[in-house]
Amino acid sequence: MADPMLLPTTVVGSYSVPEWLERLKTEYYQRRISAQHLAEIHEVAIKAAVKDQELAGIDIVSDGELRRDNDVDYFLARIPGVHIPQRAKTDYFDYYDAEVTRPLPELPERSEAPERSGLRLADDFRFTRQLTDRPVKFSFTGPFSLSRRIRDHAYPDPGDLVRALARRLNAEARELAAAGADLLQIDEPFLAGYPEQVELAVEAVNIVTDGVAATWALHVCYGNRYARPSWEGHYDFLFPAVQAARVDQIVLEFARKGLDDLRLIRQHEWDRWLGLGVIDVKTAEIESAELVASRIRRALEYVPADRLMINPDCGLRHLAPEVARQKLRAMVAAAAAVRAELEGGNKT
Amino acid sequence: MDVDLRPVKKLRESAAVRSALGPIIEAVCTSPADLSRLRVVCDWIQYRSNFRDAVVSRPIGAADVEIAVDLRRCGDSAPDDLAAGVKHALSDQSGLALEPWARGRDSCIWRFNALYWQALSAWEQATGREYEQSLPGGESDARNTEAAGELILELFRLWDDLDARRALPGELYVLELGVGNGNQARTWLDEFVRLDQRHGRDYYRRLRYLMGDYSAHVLERARQAVAHHGERVSALVVEATRPAVTLGFLAGKAFLVYISNVYDNLPTDEVALIHGHTYQVEIQAFLGEQDADDIAGRFGASRAGLVPLIDRLLRIGPELLAESAPHQFADVGQAVSFWQAVWDALRLRERYTPLEGLDSYPVSPSLTGEILRPLLETEGDVRMHVSNGALASFTGTLPLLHPFGRVQCHDLFLTGRQQYRTGFYGPGKYDGSVVNWVNGPLLQLVASRRGFGVEFTPFRQRPGSNITTLTAQARD
Fold first, then answer.
1. Does A298 touch chain B (CB under 8 A)?
2. B402 touches chain A (CB under 8 A)
């Protein structure tokens, strides 16, 4: 019998946001429905998203990030000291104009008081945790990417804003770990646009993960806003800097971009886990299980099976629900097929 | 009874227009129509060649009626003639229908439009002038070296930056849709060569300039204009409303998509909000009784045979029509004359049909009528174009853009919803083609939902022109 967690399947974070939910979210941001109603709608949607993932056979599930208006504002709107002059939106997915005019208030060292850290991500995690028996991945946007959406009038060194955000996220991570979160993921969707700042981003990642007893993943992609890449290029820029990141796994996109960058894993002797993006989230075209399996087999030439996690390139938020479900099913079937091959290989 | 006077500027300027209002209202009020269920809409139709009579009536749902008046043509009419026109419009629905009632985009006027571009050479031969001369201003736009230079230098800056990050692709794609006579492409490419030599990065070697047009005839003319740029240029027949069919390979690669005078010539529906209810404007092409008889007599057809003959023309074009019916058309020129006579006489009837649920109304393959809601529900009654073809083209073009690419489009755009309250924006006739202004706010909204910012600026190359420049680029 193969190790049941060999080639585990997971998601990157976000799950399909149906059109009706988008409309309701916009209704909220135009102040036509209450926050309480939206919260209840979100809870129903999250239950459905978790169930979808379970039915698709995903081993490690997420809440689909369905409470979030986008990958940035959900956090910025809750961080004390980040000023957002206009909180109504024409469309829920738009970004706020956010600014800091003075340094962010710092938390007391090793704060355990939830009301002080502010983002209440642990509450989000607890809700998801009680919905499923499967392992849960909890992801949040990293300090570097958050900083890119803030007009900074407070820090002479822009890196200090990134570090201050990282300290705030570290407090959140501690609360998450205390709530039982054992697989945490930092998303840095903006990093590929600023490759020259990778050292700063890694430094901030290490502030976030500092002292938090969890398995840590770092997701770096080329952007997925409106299902389009925000940048193009190669993952060369990540190395060797990412070697200094105190994370257990990097989660990268390969399905859309092709597998050429797998060479970097070998070239730079990355000896930790790789979250292998095998599903292109920027197209509604459903990959066949055979195609996905071929991508996994190719990755096995560079990474041993016991350090390979199988996931889509990025979040599924822009895919229609049925498309997302079919893509996940193809991914699970592919992982199972390759797992079976490995099991056969082990027997001989 | 509502009276909706749209051409407010003309009302201020023209005493004749103002003096026409009294007799029109007088005629309406003395007609047997139920005035509580009647509305009167007055436009100023700037297209001398158009699809409307001076006074027409339009049913609204089952019980209400709209009287639509072209004040330009009524300004000089005698009061008695105006009264007769109103009474005639309310009672008469005669004429030879060329099609069943249809949404605007499904009307046969778009088959005429398509034929015009497919058989342009024959049309031009018959008229003795090139199609550009029928455009407003008598020429296609955008051949300004300075504007081209600014755009090219912006591209150079972007490419230098991407190159520094090792993110510059090997091939640098620029796409032009709607190439006209090729002057724009020639100006742009010549300027590119000049500036590239000065810049010294040899981007010209990597440049791939794609010219796309619906008309093979136009494309060939444009290709000759840029022949000296050789293999840098490729010419492709592109169906503007479905660019991905031909240009799918370009997804995510185009640094610039340049579109000139294409969107105003693509099929469109119209929708209206009247007293809180949403309606589709349905249309039916027809020939007036006298026109139908005249054309049938002139070309040796029976009146009953006229509709199938027109359908045949639209299916096979004038050349094959002349070949297949030599007893009616001695040569291609006569077949084109038949085509032109029908086109000149062609009118559109309209009616408002209730739209049951915006989400059940398909705007384009990727959009439902829900996208219209913010524009329809903003403030009071409105009738507006859906610009279905332009939307399909625009939304099909955006995915072609490189993350730092842009669309630059010169066309007849409305830039604010409120403009629909004060003007007439089509349909009109340009020579053998159809023209409608494009619903700019709708394109802006759709782009926004896809993460693109859209800006409208006055067309710099020809001050005072109705042309507006749309620029779309990724936001955030």
1. no
2. yes
B359 inside domain: no
The alpha-carbon gap from A22 to the nearest alpha carbon of chain B, in Å, equals 11
Is the Cβ–Cβ distance between A234 and A277 less than 8 Å?
Answer: no
What CATH number does residue A75 fall under? Answer: 3.20.20.210
Residue B415's Cβ-side half-sphere holds a number of Cα atoms within 13 Å equal to 14
Domain count, chain A: 1
The residue-averaged pLDDT of B358-373 equals 92
pLDDT in tens, A204-224: 999 999 999 999 999 999 999
B170 CA: distance to closest CA in chain A (Å): 12
Are A233 and B451 in contact (CB < 8 Å)? no
CA-CA distance, A67 to A24, in Å (whole number)?
12
d(CA A313, CA A11): 9
pLDDT, one tens digit per residue, over B387-417 is: 999 999 999 999 999 999 999 999 999 999 8
Give the mean pLDDT of chain B. Answer: 91
Q: Which of B166, B169, B476 sits opposite A95 (nearest CB)?
A: B476
Q: B153: domain range?
A: 132-266+374-474
Q: How far is A219 from chain B (nearest CA, A)?
A: 20
Which residue in A has a C-alpha nearest to residue B368's C-alpha?
A: A19
Rg (CA), chain B: 24
Residue recorded with tokens 């693109």: B452
Global confidence as pTM: 0.85
Percentage of residues of chain B with pLDDT beyond 90: 70
pLDDT(A348) > 50? no
Task: Give yes or no for a contact between A117 and A65, defined as CB atoms under 8 angstroms apart.
Answer: no
**Best CA proximity match to B124, nearest among B136, B135, B114, B132:** B132
CB contact under 8 Å between B450 and A230, yes or no, is no
